[in-house]
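Put briefly, the fold is written as integer tokens. The lines below illustrate.
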Amino acid sequence: MSWIKEGSLSWLQAACVKVVRSGQVPRHVAFIMDGNRRFAAKTNVLKVEGHSKGFDKLAETLRWCLDLGVPEVTVYAFSIENFKRSKDEVDGLMDLARQKFKKLLEEKDKLREHGVRICVIGNLSLVPADLQELIREAMEATQTHNKAFLNVAFAYTAKEEMANVIGEVAGGVRDGGLLGQDVGTKLFDACLYTRHLPQVDLLIRTSGEVRFSDFMLWQASYSCIYFTDVLWPEFDIWSLLRAVLCYQMKYPALQRLRLKEEKSVLAAEEQQEARIENFLSALNSKRALSFL
């Protein structure tokens, strides 16, 4: 299946989407797409087929997000912890990823039409070299698109992301590029894999599990968290609309918390700002070179 499923909503679905769009729509929705293996067991198919059905559901969900006017979506596609699964399942997931990124490269025109930019975040040094190359090509092929953004967390955990930031910031202090007083939440934000993304407004987890599974722990500090019992391959537009309605009800309280946080981090001295900017510029150049 394509990365974005073409198709129209029923008149009832379209009417409900229109009503929901009249309220505050989240700019950034993150998904923990859980339940593929349980769906496979439930329907008596192989695990890899369950994961494939999960990708098909992602394509549908991206279409619904575009219909709703959600410009940014981040999905938890593969955790570093998933490498601990059986070799057959891990190999199957890597093969599935290869197929899907090759499909993406075949669909460049469709992604250009929708203006969708693909970004993959995580420790990509952990994935096979040929898959790294496909990921790099996919990101390069869509890097000028700016209407909608799909971020794929692959070989990712929040603990690894934060440990990586701590190591890089500590190195900056050790090398003299930063001072201890420069270290704070603003600098930490700017060093994350997600540094170029807006704040997560709504985080949705499927399958009935009520936990984050080491996904975007820092970024979800002021997010609306929505848990649903629906298995990911069975997620539908009604599930998404319920989640967005939940966000809209909580939006005023979340906004107050965010504004309070923003005020507390404002106004660093100009000299401190300059040091941080120089450090971040050097860090981003180093990261770009390491991915070539």
User: Anything to note?
Assistant: The first strand starts at residue 28 and ends at 32. The chain has a mean pLDDT of 91.
